[in-house]
Amino acid sequence: MDQLTALLGGFGDVLTPANVLWIVLGAFLGTAVGVLPGLGSSMAVALLLPLTFALDPLAALIMFSGIYFGGLFGDSTAGILMNTPGNSTAIATTFEGHRMALAGRAPQALATAAIGAFLGGLVATCLVVLAAPTLADLATRFGPGEYFALALFAFVAIAAVVGESAVRGLAALSVGLALAVVGIDQSTGTERYAFGVPALFDGVSIVVITVALLALGEVLHVASRTGRAGARELVPSRGRPWLSRADLRKALPAWLRGAGFGVPFGFIPAGGAEVPTFLAYGTERSLDARREEPEFGTGAIRGVAAPEAAGNATAGSAMGSLLALGLPTSATAALLLATFQQYGLQPGPLLFERSGDLVWALLASLFVALVTLLLLNLPFSPLWAKLLELPQGYLYAGITVFAGLGVYATGASGFDLGLMVALGLVGFVMRRYDLPLAPVLIAVILGPLAEYSLRDALGNSGNDPTTLVSSPISVGLYALLLLGLAVTGWRRRSARRSRTGADAAAPS
Q1: Which of 49, 196, 253, 328 is least crowded, fewest Cβ atoms below 10 Å from its Cβ?
Q2: Model confidence, pTM
Q3: What is the tens place of the pLDDT at every residue in 195-234?
Q4: Residue 191: phi, psi to the nearest 5?
Q5: Calpha distance 160→170 (Å, rounded)
């Protein structure tokens, strides 16, 4: 009951004309950016982060709540209508969604995606409201050793477990850690890796890093590929985006199963919603194969419903992990953590005590954002698709200008612009060689926490390394990490054996 009372107070703070306007603006911008292939919610947050310094914390955070879900809402539109998912989280939806569009059911596919995203996010957000205070109480038992274990768990899980290549993931993690240690060492007051440049004494701004890697890196990557691939045809979306009773009967169980897959993955550092969306899609495909008349391969509505619900359920529960533990479980969550820190707020157990009104208002804004996005997407998805007809040259030129203005506005520094260009080239090279970006952002955000926690733990114990494994929580985190590494290694080895066997059996 305490949670419900606090949540009602949060609704009282959010449901004002000004705050509702910020939510609608965030939902609009998040969806617009999410619709465009290659962008997504993390890009929207990165571009808008510099522009929120003039806002009060509540206005900025509730606007980002709309962007947070809006990016995921928009990602699937390009995949369904063009077979080009807006982000990797929409790949699983694209398989059957585009087939539905080719069969003349684009409006139904878009409606299925919109309702699935709404239900998945709603289920997860309700669970976060109930579970976040409990998680915050659990986090009060964390000391320096436990926080170091938690940061290490996030580093290795995102870098080695989720990515296609553990080597690439660890290489990306190293880039982020290298950026995190630049500046003045807070413990000793000595300069580290600043090379005598005064502008680097305060470290590399998270705004510069995110805008450079996500926005400018993507612009350079797209520019390098222009003209190499054939143009994708936009399937028109005409008709009413309503689902029949038969469609609802098929989709409802898939929505619920998808949400069930997505919720747990939001609480662990799995790098995003790719894993639960593919698990949800695979489950629906396996169930469909047992039916008398299988539908997968011809445009199955279940193949759209389950991944969409899983993706937004993961995003919703990730907010609980971020608020209660201070643990970002995806690149977008890491950027939201940077937004909190921008206002001097540190997510974790103390956030509920020191800024409880802000936390519950933010949770209330998630519900308002989900309803707003459903109203924006269910009837108006065909209008969002018009953004896909924008010429790429104009679009990415505008992103470049917007990124430069945002970086310059934060510090009025020409050095930051030069650094943005340099890091943009790093982002381009990472994309060219398939190095994931999420480990870089997680390392930049959590690197200082890991370093401080390690120093604090060793300093308080007389440099005894066993203090890092002296509590059940830290031992449990390390055990869970080792188990994840073992399972991932076994699966990759099995996949390599299967490919080798298939190649050997193929006729020469």
Answers
A1: 196
A2: 0.72
A3: 888 888 888 887 788 788 877 888 888 888 765 544 455 5
A4: -80, 140
A5: 6
